[in-house]
Amino acid sequence: MSDSASCAPCSADAADIADAANRSGNAPARPSLLLPGLAALGAVTLWGLSFPAMKVAVQALGPMPLMWARMMVAMALLAPFTARLFPARTVAVVPSGTLARRGFWSGVPRRHKLLLLPTVLLQPCLYFLFESKAMQLTTASQAGVISASVPLLVGAGAWLLLGERPSPRLWVGVAFSCAGVAWLTLSGGAGTESAPDPLLGNMLELLAMACAAGNMLLVRRLSAHGGHQGGECGGFRWNPWTLTALQTVAGALFFAPGAYAALTGAGQWPVDVVLAVVYLGAGASLGAFGLFNWATSHLPASSVGAFINLVPVTAVGFGWLWLGETLNATQMLAAAVVMVGVALGTGRRR
């Protein structure tokens, strides 16, 4: 876990790159995408495992108490690293030149502070609010199909807002992965879940996916390497783990209405519920969001969004292993299509 630090100005970055190119006689090598790709894969795996864990916990606690409890677990794990996540800095006071200590927030540009509110509001707050309500109104199959829209929303948003130009290969990969997710979620049949208002539920699920896509774009804007975003030259870059900590605090405050029920009933939780809550807080909330934020800071937003389509695949797999849910041959073929799409969408252009 690295400290937040200010990057060098854009002009200095450009000069360093030019010097490196001149010394070697070649353009500098592009950074490896292996570790960011593995981080994104780890995040979606943790999110996939959260589905059976959520099913165990939500039946015992209810949505609001569960969400507050998992956020508190994540906050407890982050607390020992507060000084590293929000480091103070030493600056020279003008005109005397004497050194003085300044708090972390004094070094955050005003524009970044303004972007923080929509970042944490979109996810985890509104995302979980819309999705939990949607799952009460529509079927899991229809919601799963709609979740395939995330890469499209991210790709379109990155094109419109960040100036990224997705390659045709990425769009082909998105088409493959969306088709695979639709096939996967529909191949299990209509199911037996209650769906009193599918139209409203599907609209809420789409809103949740829009929140997830908007959050990815904002995290990319705040934490991307290079200090040059959208024509601006800024020296400050967020540590992705600091953003994760802020998201966790925002989620704990947003879902605070569930605190009383969680605290009064905590002593009566079965062991499997306790383990599920601990996993959801440590693995799904902290681990998955931290890894995904870090991957987002190193990969184009349009590429990292394609990994989201692996979440249904891992969820089906873990549901089969943990809860004994059926994984038929058709679903396995659909999962393979999703993986092909992710490979196409996140592959390096030559």
- Secondary-structure element string: EHHHHEEHHHHHEEEHHHHHH
% residues in beta strands: under 5%
Ends apart, CA distance between termini? 32 Å
> What low-confidence regions span 5 or more consecutive residues with pLDDT below 50?
1-30, 225-234
What is the number of beta strands? Answer: 6
Class from helix and strand fractions: mainly alpha
Q: Tell me, rounded to a whole number, the average pLDDT.
A: 76
Largest beta-sheet details: 2 strands, antiparallel
Structural account:
The chain is mainly alpha-helical and 350 residues long. 69% of the residues lie in helices and 5% in strands. The protein has helices at 10-24, 34-61, 63-78, 82-85, 110-137, 140-147, 150-162, 168-186, 198-223, 240-254, 259-265, 271-298, 301-304, 310-323, 329-346; strands at 5-6, 89-92, 99-102, 228-229, 232-233, 236-237. The strands form 3 sheets. Strands 1-6 form a two-stranded antiparallel sheet. Helix 3 (63-78) packs antiparallel against helix 10, helix 3 packs across helix 12 and helix 7 (150-162) packs across helix 9 (198-223). The longest helix has 28 residues, at 34-61. Mean pLDDT is 76; it is low at 1-30 and 225-234.
